[in-house]
Design a protein that fits this description.
Layout: H1 2-12, E1 23-26, E2 29-32, E3 61-67, E4 70-78, E5 83-86, H2 92-105, E6 108-109, H3 124-135, E7 144-146, H4 147-158, H5 164-174, E8 183-185, H6 186-191, H7 194-207, E9 214-215, E10 217-221, H8 229-242, H9 246-250, E11 255-260, E12 265-269, E13 296-303, E14 309-310, E15 313-315, H10 325-330, E16 345-347, E17 354-358, E18 360-362, E19 369-372, E20 378-380, E21 383-385, E22 388-396
Antiparallel strand pairs: 1-2, 3-4, 4-5, 5-17, 6-10, 7-8, 9-12, 10-11, 11-22, 12-20, 13-17, 13-22, 14-21, 15-16, 15-20, 18-19
Bound molecules: 2-acetamido-2-deoxy-beta-D-glucopyranose (4 copies).
Length: about 400
């Protein structure tokens, strides 16, 4: 089986590396990537535009030169989403170095909850902010949050799936449903006990780790402006690999390093936002303190170690003709504890390998973020044995170019 797969890959393999390989064409402009500033496309006052590689077809292998003395293979794993696998993108030493940097920085479980020892009395402004955030999940537009909508809010903001029973217990404890009609109005939310809410969420996280959508620890490493040679080399390699203007590469989020232990996982999710809802979901670029959306054009994920068993990256609906979100949720296909190995694309972790995909198409109007690719749904399967270290490199871009982005 493995042998025949390799055979097929060899047949499709085509060496595209030539002396002129570094010619990057961006819209009407052509420039040599040796000139680092040329692929900005800002030279004539226009804003930089996004660029998408050509996957040719599933199984196609392209050879790319990203650094001195080495040729990398870039294998197309899927066209929708456009998804590539690049073995040995990082060396053993580079992987170990990044793990060491992350260890020094310290890894934390993802929680947005305040420390229980902190003084957690909420100001009225903070309560208004919380309630506004909660009420934004009012899919039924009736001005109230149902238990179903509440569970969706918990899933989105706290990365946890909670049962109906948990929702009911919680509503009673935090007193968010005074009139007991099973619905939370804005008034009820404002008068509810926000400290009890935090305490209950912390209790759930501590006591039901396997129900968490995400079970891992992470930290962030700043790349742009860093003096670390490995991180700078990596950024340079990503620029050559993606052929994106350096503006996007250098103004993207920091590198996120994640560690999963046994049972560690991240159920299938999207890295980027679904749509552009005007001002409300303006993209965060450079400034993450603001209420804004993480508009992630691409994800480049690096495996930093060999996992003894499990820990694959799965794309449940890659290449699927018809996508029905309701059915995907109903069939629990996002739960990778159950549906890892029947996902349409499953990538095995291996130290140094990179897997890279596009979360959006490019808008043919703005040249920036276009339609969200619903087939980019993906996640990390359970680690069955050993531990798993990865790094996520998200490349951000806005939907529309505006001053201040
Ligand atoms: C996923 O499935 C497992 C196994 O059935 C279950 O224990 C877990 O609660 C599910 N997780 C979520 C987030 O639904
Ligand atoms: C970032 O956002 C905050 C909150 O909106 C704002 O006060 C601050 O000026 C912004 N910083 C930059 C560099 O844009
Ligand atoms: C999606 O699936 C649900 C449940 O099976 C069905 O009711 C709905 O009509 C489907 N939606 C579309 C757009 O096909
Ligand atoms: C942009 O794409 C849309 C949808 O694919 C298409 O309908 C439209 O004609 C295109 N516009 C231009 C200017 O190419």
């Amino acid at each position: 089986m493995l042998r025949s797969l390799l055979f097929v890959l060899t047949i499709f393999s085509q060496i595209i590396f030539r002396d002129d390989f570094f010619v990057v064409s961006l819209t009407s402009e052509t420039c040599s990537a040796k000139n680092q500033d040329c692929n900005m496309a800002e030279v004539d006052g226009a804003h930089p535009k996004l660029f998408m590689l050509d996957g040719i077809k599933v199984g196609h292998v392209q050879e790319v030169k990203l650094m001195e003395g080495k040729i990398h293979q870039m294998i197309t794993r899927s066209l929708r989403p456009l998804l590539f696998e690049i073995p040995d993108f990082l060396s053993k030493e580079e992987c170990e170095h990044i793990i060491k940097l992350a260890g020094k920085k310290g890894l934390h479980e993802s929680t947005t909850l305040p420390d229980p020892d902190d003084d957690i009395a909420y100001s009225d402004e903070e309560k208004v902010e919380h309630c506004k955030n909660l009420l934004s999940n009012d899919r039924g537009s009736d001005g109230k949050i149902s238990t179903l909508e509440f569970a969706a809010f918990i899933k989105q903001d706290f990365a946890m799936s909670i049962s109906d029973a948990d929702v009911e217990t919680m509503l009673q404890k935090v007193n968010f449903d005074k009139d007991r009609d099973g619905l939370i109005s804005e008034k009820e939310c404002l008068e509810g006990n926000h400290v009890a809410f935090d305490q209950y969420m912390r209790y759930l996280e501590d006591n039901h780790p396997r129900e968490r959508t995400r079970l891992s620890k992470q930290t962030w490493l700043s790349v742009t402006g860093s003096t670390d040679v490995v991180l700078r080399d990596l950024q340079q390699r990503v620029k050559l690999l993606t052929k994106l203007p350096k503006y996007f590469i250098e103004n993207s989020e920091d590198l996120q390093v994640v560690q999963y232990g046994v049972h560690g996982h991240y159920h299938a999710h999207y890295d980027s936002t679904n749509e552009w809802n005007g001002q409300a979901s303006r993209c965060c670029l450079r400034n993450y303190s603001d209420h804004c959306s993480l508009c992630r054009f691409m994800t480049v994920l690096y495996y930093l170690n060999d996992v003894t068993d499990g820990g694959e990256t799965a794309f449940p609906v890659a290449e699927e003709e018809h996508i029905n979100q309701t059915e995907i949720e109903k069939e629990d296909r996002t739960n990778l504890s159950i549906h890892c190995y029947d996902a349409n694309v499953v990538v095995r972790p291996a130290r140094g390998k990179a897997v890279m995909w596009y979360n959006h198409l490019i808008s043919n109007v703005t040249g920036l973020l276009g339609e969200h690719d619903v087939r980019s749904l993906h996640g990390g399967c359970d680690v069955l044995e050993g531990s798993k270290w990865i790094a996520n490199n998200w490349i951000n871009a806005p939907f529309k170019w505006t001053d201040g982005n």
